[in-house]
Fold this sequence. Notes:
Elements: E1 3-7, H1 11-22, E2 26-30, H2 34-42, E3 55-60, H3 64-76, E4 80-85, H4 91-99, E5 107-112, E6 133-137, H5 144-156, E7 160-163, H6 166-189, H7 196-199, H8 204-210, H9 217-225, H10 228-252, H11 257-278, E8 293-300, H12 305-315, E9 322-327, E10 333-340, H13 345-354
Parallel strand pairs: 1-2, 1-3, 3-4, 4-5, 6-7
Antiparallel strand pairs: 5-6, 8-10, 9-10
Helix pairs in contact: 3-4, 6-10, 10-11
Signal peptide: 1-19
Family: Belongs to the prephenate/arogenate dehydrogenase family.
Pathway: Amino-acid biosynthesis; L-tyrosine biosynthesis; (4-hydroxyphenyl)pyruvate from prephenate (NAD(+) route): step 1/1
Amino acid sequence: MRTALVIGTGLIGTSAALALASRGVTVHLADHDPGQARTAAALGAGTDEAPEGPVDLCIVAVPPAHVAAQLADAMRRGLARAYIDVASVKGGPRRELEEMGLDLTPYIGTHPMSGRERSGPLAADADLFEGRPWVLTPTRDTDTEVLNLALELVALCRAVPVVMDADAHDRAVALVSHMPHLVSSMVAARLEHAEEAAVRLCGQGIRDVTRIAASDPRMWIDILSANPGPVADLLSAVAGDLEETVQSLRSLQSSDDAKRREGVDGVETMLRRGNAGQSRVPGKHGAAPAAYEIVAVLISDQPGELARIFADAGAAGVNIEDVRIEHATGQQAGFVQLMVQPAQAPKLAAALRERGWAMRP
Length: 361
């Protein structure tokens, strides 16, 4: 791949353009908002000048509702040898293109499973896709050269290719992305009018659950509008679980011992189902999740503190498998949770104490 055209210079489009440009590909940028394309170009993502002829790959990075129309326009104008989109829904756009009677041999639907709460070119990052799954949904009509160009794009972005059927992809992302986003928003909505005294008690648990609720609602309306059926089916199942759990909790208020036992059993069943589901979430490098030991260290909110604690862990010969920061409410301090292999935890704790760090018991 020597040349590419990115249509849509938001977070995903600009991040892909930055990755390609950094690896020597000549990238042309286009957007319905020329100012946004100029911003992406100023960041080093390419040029906002139109290509003089067909490019090797056209990447359509627009909201799902506009993917088919944008692809059809690009294909009819012969802008590239191959065309992909990066929308989070795959079945709908493909069917729209089929209904238009277009030759789909130069097209393949794709979806990089990566993003963040912020949107737009200023939020873009050339490393956004590194190590993340990038779904490819070829059909029997997809030309081999087109598939190879898509795989080259994934490799240049340092992502991991995953081949799926388009409709299977849509059901999967409804489960692991779209439905959880709505549930996160519903939990966060409970905080909107909560008393300030209650909100000040927010800890890491509520921060984890509500983090993705900070995303742009306009973007999510586009996504959910393109995949409503599978998401509604999943939310209906969650609603059933919620109703059973509510009844179990009501039973715990009963003065009848048998009723209370039913309540305990119901709540425990739900919690254990949650344990079983969470244990299936892939861990580091996509492997089965490991049982790490947490070493919690008090850390002040000062420049260089994280670097210093990582350096001290490295000097102790301990590899940090994962890390989280628990911020203290109203204080310029917090706890950094260093996740390590269980056998390494005592060694790390002892080494950090020797270097003056305060540990949480």
